[in-house]
Amino acid sequence: MKAKVVICGDSSRIDSLLATLIMKDHPVAGVVLPADEPAKTSTEFAALQTAAKLCQHFSLTLGQNEDLASADVVIIALERPQIAAEDMLSYVQGIMPRFRQLVNSVIENGFKGKILISAPFDELLVYFAWRFSGLPQTQLVGVGTFSQTLFLQSQLKHRLHVGENDVRALVVGTPQQQLIVWSRSYVGPAPVLMYLANQDNHFSAEDIAELETEASSQALVDNWVIQDMALERLLMALVDDQPLIATVSNIQTDHEVGPLAISTPVLVSLAGVHRLTDLTLSDSEETEFETIIGQLRQTITEIENGKIGGTE
User: Fold this and answer.
1) Origin, by domain of life (predicted)?
2) Which helix (H) or strand (E) covers residue 204, if one does?
3) Which of 21, 144, 218, 299 is deepest in the core (most CB within 10 A)?
């Protein structure tokens, strides 16, 4: 039986994601909810719907709110506004009222499944979706730093000339404030940093610095192709028997500063999102990670106090 996945949000992001899902041809029944302009949505949707007819497994229809009650997953895909990176936080102020209305509509129409979010500042949107929806924290997940983790693992594979399954790297935090956990990143049986001591590997401190720059670049954060690749893998983990451990935005309630959503490695599966063990960091990494947590919680508090958008 096909999993039913309802996709809503901005048309450009929906179109991009649908193209990826059509190419992958998974056993998924995709249902797109109309945007604010149904006629425009129908026109843009026609080409994708025609392409989906070539799929053996994936199907695509234009749906209604009534489809939410029987959906397994709702994907909320929002695009990045065309503003300067330093002004990105103002994005939250503009999107929060619409986002709250969207989440409320999903719940009011009987949805009880899992919500998967792909958007700028998805760590904030995952947290507020949890607040607005009343869903268990295991049923909300954002792409978070998973796309950056996939990119880092790919680059390590190419630079060290190893196989795809030989690399395990972690990027945690948020896409805007990420931390590469070098102390827990491995190639084969050894930590990545051990390869710096072997000149035969042609892997140096300069390579580490370059990887950190590339993984933290705004261009990577804004790369929706990589974002969709990560989103597709997470979706199949949530609806099919393809569990994976991924650095995704997930709700955490055990921090001293208060509850929040932040990217850490968790198990993503049919059962939702579950933390298998606490994240162990080096002393310097722990200090940096706590700083990220503190700043993120401060932003959440400002939003909750009505200083940054429509949650008061």
Assistant:
1) Bacteria
2) none
3) 144
Is residue 50 within 8 Å of residue 22, measured between CB atoms?
no
Cβ pair 298, 312 in contact under 8 A = no
Residue 246 falls inside a structural domain: no
CA 272, 275, 280 angle in degrees (round to 5)?
155
- Domain boundaries, position 59: 3-142
Angle in degrees, 0-180, between the axes of helices 38-52 and 11-24, rounded to the nearest 10: 10
Estimate to the nearest angstrom the gap between the alpha carbon of 13 and the chain centroid: 13
Q: Which of 129, 164, 148 is nearest to 273 (CA)?
A: 129
Q: Confirm whether 229 is domain-assigned.
A: no
Does residue 161 come out as left (phi exceeding 0), alpha (psi in the -120 to 50 range) or beta? left
111 lies in a domain? Answer: yes
44 found inside a domain:
yes
Burial (CB count within 10 angstroms: exposed 0-12, middle 13-18, buried 19+), residue 34: middle
Q: Global pTM?
A: 0.92
Convert 252-268 to b/e letters by CB count within 10 Å (16 or more is b): beeeeeeebbbbbbbbb
* Whether 272 contacts 114, CB under 8 Å: yes
Angstrom distance (rounded) from CA 130 to CA 258:
14
3-state secondary structure of 239: helix
Find the CATH number of the domain harbouring 54.
3.40.50.720
**Is the CB of residue 56 less than 8 Å from the CB of residue 30?**
no
Number of domains in the chain: 1
